[in-house]
Design brief:
Number of strands of chain A: 10
Strand order of the largest sheet of chain B: 2-3-1-4
Largest interface: A-B, 25 and 21 residues
Strand order of the largest sheet of chain A: 6-7-8-3-9-10
Helix content of chain A: 25-40%
Distance between the termini of chain A: 32 Å
Structural class of chain A: alpha/beta
Radius of gyration of chain A: 18 Å
Helix content of chain B: over 70%
Order of helices and strands of chain B: HHEHEHHEHEHHHEEH
Structural class of chain B: alpha+beta
Bound molecules: adenosine-5'-diphosphate, magnesium ion
Number of domains of chain B: 2
Radius of gyration of chain B: 31 Å
Number of strands of chain B: 6
Number of helices of chain B: 10
Oligomer: heterodimer
Shape of chain A: globular
Chain lengths: 237, 297
């Protein structure tokens, strides 16, 4: 079943930059998809259109049955509740501990406390931070902070997890740890994961579907592939 | 249920925020307080001056004294003339003996003095009630034309002056209130603006996880509301206690019966509610402005 359907999408920023051009792709429920490309190639722009941080200038972007281009500003929250987003900077609230940071997301949605607690604990457990529930972000390593951010994105059981360079600030070992967690979330919970990165080694190790974006254009779409495979394909062209 | 939880969360957040930006909050609250005290004064004046005007217009009288040697025919002549004057509402004669009796009742000293005198030194009089304050002096002048009339007195310029002064004061206060309301709204708006900036990450996360727009905006609107309500506490207490005290101390009359204070209840309650309403509206208006300008969703 298609979770995401992008048809001939364009994003031209107000200053005239064409960040995405004629991009078409579909992603099924339960897939794990990398979006790779060098800095400035348009990965973030593509991802932002998926959670309606940016509207496509032209074309169609449909996520979980919602037509993103037609979604009014006041209704964006309906889309956001279906997905979780994780960034390179973790965007944690420094004065709240791990539990409170994760619970914050559910509290703003107006969930009752007796529903919040089990959801928060389950999410914290899924990222392996059970021992640090009461720690403040400043008492955690970068990898642990990113895990809190992942737990927060997962807390409301979204069908889709969007990650924009989640390992961008982390060393290789910590990155591997994060990838392990994302992989297990994808396998055990069936959450669809889309992750933008420019880390070739990481992509090559994982053997997942890879969307390669170059200068805003989808250069290739490799199933169970890697960046190297793609490059050889491109070279042979 | 869900809306209620979001509401209570918003209120909790707003209170936290008020105390987090304490110095700014205090500035906003003080400004609201000063504004509302002036509002209270303006309402007090305009309400009671209105009372003055109506009271004066009802009870405005010219006291006409005849000369000592006035004859009964002359008295009838004046009374007939009064009947033809458009501005005369009614009149009442009061003889020198009636004056004497009244004065003797009021004071023992006067009683003995007047008793001591063989002849009544007082004058016969007519008390004329007019219809229209503005034609008062003209009516008095016409009465003075009779040569057997010794005097025709009224409050002279005082009545008009008092009304004029109170009018000027209440207009001046009104202008100041408008200016202060604007300053207050601006100050509150500025406070909320800083709150919005200081909670940028929080707002970003809320948007990201799918909090509805109202859930994101409500805490800020409430914060302005709370600032306004806090600012109205002191003015409300001053109005209630001050007015009741003034009323009890003066027996309801200020400036020798020229201002008659209205009964404290329900006046002070209405005044308090008006202050609370203005305070909270100004607060919410200020925060609404900030939210509209700085919280782009
Ligand atoms: N808000 C924006 N306004 C104008 N240009 C932008 C904006 N965001 C990104 N761009 C431009 O769009 C292109 C793609 O950027 P981005 O999607 O951030 O790439 P990536 O995430 O792959 O590094 C770049 O040239 C960038 O400068
Ligand atoms: Mg990027």
């Amino acid at each position: 079943m298609k979770l995401i359907k992008v048809e001939h999408a364009y994003k031209i920023y107000k200053n005239g930059t064409t960040a995405i051009a004629d991009l078409s792709v579909t992603i099924d429920k339960g897939e794990f998809v990398f979006v790779i490309g060098s800095t400035g190639s348009g990965k973030s722009t593509f991802i932002k259109m998926l959670y309606r941080e940016e509207k496509p200038t032209r074309g169609k972007v449909i996520v979980g049955g919602i037509d993103v281009a037609k979604l009014r500003n006041s209704k964006v929250y309906k889309l956001r509740r279906k997905l979780g987003v994780v960034f390179q900077d973790f965007k944690l609230l420094p004065k709240l501990n791990v539990y409170e940071n994760v619970a914050f997301a559910l509290e703003t949605l107006g969930l009752p406390n007796n529903e919040i607690r089990p959801k928060v604990l389950r999410a914290i457990e899924a990222v392996g931070l059970k021992e640090k529930t009461r720690n403040l972000p400043s008492e955690l390593s970068g990898g642990e902070q990113q895990r809190v951010a992942i737990a927060r994105a997962l807390a409301n059981d979204p069908k889709l997890l969007i990650c924009d360079e989640p390992t961008g600030n982390l060393d290789p070992d910590t990155s591997k740890e994060i990838m392990k967690i994302l992989d297990s979330i994808n396998r055990t919970m069936g959450t669809t994961i889309i992750m933008a990165t420019h880390d070739k080694d990481l992509v090559n190790r994982m053997k997942k579907r890879v969307l390669v974006i170059e200068d805003g254009v989808l250069a290739s779409d490799v199933k169970k592939g890697s960046y190297k495979v793609h490059e050889s394909v491109k070279d042979s062209k | 249920m869900k809306a209620l939880r979001i509401l209570s969360r918003s209120i909790r957040d707003s209170f936290k925020s008020v105390f987090r930006n304490f110095s700014l909050s205090i500035a906003s609250i003080l400004c609201t307080t000063i504004t509302l005290i002036l509002v209270a004064v303006a309402i007090f004046l305009s309400y009671n001056v209105h009372e003055v005007t109506t009271t004066l217009e009802h009870e405005l009288t010219i006291v006409v004294y005849y000369k000592q040697d006035v004859t009964d025919e002359q008295k009838i002549e004046l009374e007939n003339a009064l009947k033809t004057m458009d501005n005369v509402d009614s009149y009442e004669t009061k003889s020198k003996d009636e004056w004497k009796a009244e004065m003797q009742k009021e004071s023992d000293t006067l009683k003995t003095t007047l008793d001591y005198l063989e002849e009544n030194p007082l004058l016969d009089s007519v008390i004329v009630t007019v219809k229209n304050v503005s034609d008062l002096s003209e009516t008095a002048n016409r009465i003075r034309e009779f040569d057997f009339v010794s005097s025709a007195e009224y409050g002279e310029g005082m009545v008009e002056n008092v009304i004029g002064i109170f009018d000027a004061i209440s207009w001046g206060t009104f202008g100041m209130v408008i200016a202060l309301v604007l300053v207050t709204a601006f100050l509150i708006s500025n406070t909320i603006k800083l709150t919005i900036f200081s909670r940028k990450t929080e707002i970003e996360i809320m948007r990201l996880v799918g909090a509805s727009n109202s859930a994101i905006k409500l805490p800020f609107i409430f914060e302005g509301f709370i600032l306004g309500v806090f600012g109205s506490i002191i003015p409300i207490l001053i109005s209630i206690y001050g007015y009741v005290l003034l009323y009890n101390k003066t027996g309801g009359y200020v400036f020798t019966k020229i201002i008659t204070l209205v009964e404290p209840f329900p006046f002070v309650i209405i005044l308090a509610l008006i202050l609370l309403l203005i305070g909270s509206l100004v607060g919410m208006f200020g925060s609404w402005r900030a939210v509209r300008k700085y919280l782009k969703i």
